[in-house]
Amino acid sequence: MSTVKKAVIPAAGLGTRFLPVTKSMPKEMLPIIDVPVIHYVVKEALASGIDDIIIITGRGKRSIEDYFDDAPELEMHLGNSGKEEYLRMVREISSLVDLHYIRQKEPLGLGHAVLQAEKHISGEPFAVLLGDDIIKNSEPCTKQLIDIHGRKGCSVIAVEDVPQDMVSSYGIIDGKPVEPSLCVLKDIVEKPPVHEAPSTMGAIGRYVFNPEIFDCLKEIPKGVGGELQLTDAIRLLKGRQDVYAYSFRGRRYDTGSAMGYLEAIIDFALDKEYLHDDLMEFMRRKVGR
Ligand code: UTP
Question: Is the domain of 249 the same as that of 288?
Answer without folding.
Answer: no
